[in-house]
């Protein structure tokens, strides 16, 4: 049963990732990315990481993608018309790079194939919110608070960058 | 129960899709979304390692990666808006501010 769920979610994730890269309309590719993130959160549930699955939907599919969609709607980006219309050397080189990296990754996974463990028995207790919070607020307390400072700095920096008045270059 | 290899292979496939997207697209927002896809692929491999070894540290690492990704998205989108105000375009082949 878990195998069937995994195959379904994996096919969904790969198909929505490909559709995100290929689709011409920017809004469509953002929505495909939301589908990809939801299917990844299902995979986290299969791995018994419940807290991370919830956070994935809340933060990624909820907050970050809403930000992306807001920017797309605000800028009113026109579609790329000449995507895959004609053969370009750029696409070929990019595809070659992708296949090369994929082959390396698969080779390194395959060479460790028999030494890797199966799902640990104690994972049912490990993945809950309680366990994550327990480690987060004791062992990783300083990085957690640094995260707060990082987020504050990012928001202030974004405000300064986006509010700065620049004269458009075309008016001159 | 499935072995860890399947999750790692799926993570590798998603990472390569994101990488090809970064290389071939010209729209800056889509390039950002492809970077998010690559971050998600790495998160999947971290969570599968964490789950298969029964160790919580990988999930904590995913938590921090998520916070950093949120900060990166905020700053990156602000930069895209600033570039759009200057150039009236988000096509990265038309941005030549730093071109030598």
UniProtKB/TrEMBL annotation, chain A:
Keyword NAD attributed: yes
Identify the EC number(s): 7.1.1.-
Which Gene3D superfamilies does UniProt cross-reference here?
Answer: NADH-ubiquinone/plastoquinone oxidoreductase chain 6, subunit NuoJ (1.20.120.1200)
Residue intervals passing through the bilayer: 6-23, 30-47, 53-77, 89-110, 140-162
Which keywords belong to this entry?
Cell membrane, Membrane, NAD, Quinone, Transmembrane, Transmembrane helix
Name the catalysed reactions.
a quinone + NADH + 5 H(+)(in) = a quinol + NAD(+) + 4 H(+)(out)
Record's keyword annotation contains Transferase: no
- Primary location: membrane
Q: Where in the cell is it found?
A: Cell membrane
Membrane topology term: Multi-pass membrane protein
Do you know which InterPro entries this protein is assigned to?
A: NADH_UbQ/plastoQ_OxRdtase_su6 (IPR001457), Nuo/plastoQ_OxRdtase_6_NuoJ (IPR042106)
PANTHER family per UniProt: NADH-UBIQUINONE OXIDOREDUCTASE CHAIN 6
Q: Function, please? A: NDH-1 shuttles electrons from NADH, via FMN and iron-sulfur (Fe-S) centers, to quinones in the respiratory chain. Couples the redox reaction to proton translocation (for every two electrons transferred, four hydrogen ions are translocated across the cytoplasmic membrane), and thus conserves the redox energy in a proton gradient.
Similarity remark? Belongs to the complex I subunit 6 family.
The protein in question is named: NADH-quinone oxidoreductase subunit J
Q: Which organism is it from?
A: Fodinibius salicampi
Its organism's taxonomic lineage begins at: Bacteria, Pseudomonadati, Balneolota, Balneolia, Balneolales
Automatic annotation (TrEMBL), chain B:
Give the enzyme's EC designation.
7.1.1.-
| The protein's enzyme class | translocase
Query: What UniProt keywords are attached to this protein's entry?
Result: Cell membrane, Membrane, NAD, Oxidoreductase, Quinone, Translocase, Transmembrane, Transmembrane helix, Transport, Ubiquinone
Q: Where are the transmembrane segments?
A: 6-24, 29-49, 61-84
> Could you confirm whether the keyword Oxidoreductase appears in this record?
yes
Q: Which InterPro entries match?
A: NADH_UbQ_OxRdtase_chain4L/K, NUOK/Mnh_C1-like
The way it spans or sits in the membrane comes to: Multi-pass membrane protein
Subcellular localization, per the record? Cell membrane; Membrane
Name the source's superkingdom: Bacteria
GO terms of molecular function? NADH dehydrogenase (quinone) (non-electrogenic) activity
Cite the Gene3D superfamilies for this sequence. 1.10.287.3510
Any Pfam family hit: Oxidored_q2
Q: Which HAMAP family match?
A: NDH1_NuoK
Q: Which family does it belong to?
A: Belongs to the complex I subunit 4L family.
State what this protein does: NDH-1 shuttles electrons from NADH, via FMN and iron-sulfur (Fe-S) centers, to quinones in the respiratory chain. The immediate electron acceptor for the enzyme in this species is believed to be ubiquinone. Couples the redox reaction to proton translocation (for every two electrons transferred, four hydrogen ions are translocated across the cytoplasmic membrane), and thus conserves the redox energy in a proton gradient.
Subunit annotation? NDH-1 is composed of 14 different subunits. Subunits NuoA, H, J, K, L, M, N constitute the membrane sector of the complex.
NCBIfam families recorded for this chain? PRK05715.1-2, PRK05715.1-3, PRK05715.1-5
What's the protein name? NADH-quinone oxidoreductase subunit K
| Protein source organism | Fodinibius salicampi
Protein encoded by which gene: nuoK
